[in-house]
Amino acid sequence: MSYQWPLDASELFGERYPQMVNTGLPVADIDAVRAAVTEMWADAPGGWVHEWSKLAAAYADAGAHEQAALAYGWAKFPSLADASKRVALAKQLEQYRLAAPGFGVRFQRDVLELPYRGNTTSVPVHLFTPFDLPADRPVVLASGGVDSWKMDVHGLMVLLATQLRARVLVFDIAGTGESTVPMTGSGGAEMVSGLIEHARSLGNGVVAHVGISMGGYFSARSGLGGEADAAVVLGGPVETAFTEARTYAFGMDGIVGNAMGFDAPPTIEQLAVRRAEFSLRPLLDQDRNSPMLVVNGADDVHVPQHDTLVFQGRRDTVVNLVPDTGHCAVSKLPEVFPTIIGWLDRTLATAKTVR
Questions:
Q1: In whole angstroms, what is the distance from residue 261 CA to residue 116 CA?
Q2: Would you give the DSSP letter of residue 100?
Q3: For position 271, what pLDDT does the model report?
Q4: CB proximity list for 220: less than 8 A, separation 6 or greater
Q5: pTM (2 d.p.)
Q6: What is residue 48's predicted lDDT score, i.e. its pLDDT?
Q7: Which fold has domain 9-99?
Q8: 213 neighbors 245 (Cβ within 8 angstroms)
Q9: CATH 2.60.40.10 corresponds to the domain 104-350
């Protein structure tokens, strides 16, 4: 189930430009696509998916498979709302697998059957393992968010694996990417529980969970519930972001609506009912969390400052609201991500799983 919705392509470029620049594509190529795109949904010259796919195909023809995968990632952005977006995702995966020998780490793709709402669901995962890694190292479970998925955050995942000297298991949260089930709070968390259990079998049993954006919602859940042995929340919504009074910016209403499985634009009331289920207030009221690092930009238009600052004063928790940057502190990631890696390195050095 999916649907298109009114979305201004020029506004989307304005909001996501720092992310586009920071993920590894040449600025000149991004600017050329930006100049060519005049509308969001048309699969024709001037359309978002057409112009990004044209760039991706040029990279692919030149043998630049990793850049092709990144460009196809932007072609299918921000949601698989029609057939052309789904084609772009399939081509992204094809180019990504062709690029794998150059990743600088061992790459393995598996499809796991994981619990989901009384049944199971197939979840494709990517495992990055530094060469010559000892078996007794922790595992980091990681994901992007509701519109930037496992292949889109590739550079950060390889950085995690190589800098931490740890296996990194990357997945798409429920309702996104290659997932075939809708995004719900409890169902998505059930899937994550299955992933954590699987990750414990891959290393020394210690598992950290790193979540970016909506992925940070699920890592906050893992950390607050004590499921993961450490949790990093980068730009995660946890409470106020899900209240009825919150309005969406830059097409996020359609992005979230598609992830939740609606087949037409939901009403404000329909969205409010679905969003209410996500609040982590019950877990925030408990005092049982694993060590946590909670980071976001102070100027985030999607996630209120409250959802970061609410973690202040919790035991074993470090909070960093970064000034002069927005959602997930994306424009300052070159300084923020080393801080995250340093915290994980120190925390995992002393972490011991009780399971």
A1: 15
A2: G
A3: 85
A4: 211, 231, 233, 236, 238, 280, 283, 292, 294
A5: 0.95
A6: 97
A7: de novo design (two linked rop proteins) (1.20.1440)
A8: no
A9: no
Tally the residues of the chain.
355
- The neighbour count for residue 15, using CB atoms within 10 Å, is 18
pLDDT at 273: 87
- Is residue 229 within 8 A of residue 353, CB to CB? The reply is yes
Give the model confidence (pLDDT) of 270-316 as tens digits: 888 888 899 999 999 999 999 999 999 999 989 999 999 999 999 99
Contact (Cβ atoms closer than 8 angstroms) between residue 175 and residue 188 = yes
State the first-to-last Cα distance of the chain, in angstroms, to the nearest integer: 39
In Å, how far are 24, 230, 264, 341 from 186, measured between CA atoms? 34, 20, 23, 28
Distances (CA, A) of 207 to 138, 199, 203, 226, 319: 6, 7, 9, 11, 21
Give the 3-state secondary structure of residue 355: coil
355, pLDDT greater than 50? no
Confidence check: pLDDT of 49 > 90: yes
| Angle separating helix axes 154-164 and 333-350, nearest 10 degrees | 40
Q: What DSSP state is assigned to residue 102?
A: G
Domain boundaries, the chain: 9-99, 104-350
pLDDT score for 281: 96
Residue 27 has φ and ψ, to the nearest 5°, of -60, -40
Residue pair 97/109 in contact by the 8 Å Cβ criterion: yes
H helix runs in the chain, sequence order? 9-22, 27-36, 48-61, 65-76, 83-99, 154-164, 185-200, 214-224, 252-259, 268-276, 281-284, 306-309, 333-350
For the record, the structure tokens of 96 come out as 């990504």
Torsion of CA 290, 162, 346, 328, to 10 degrees: -60
Q: How far apart are CA 176 and CA 149, in angstroms?
A: 7
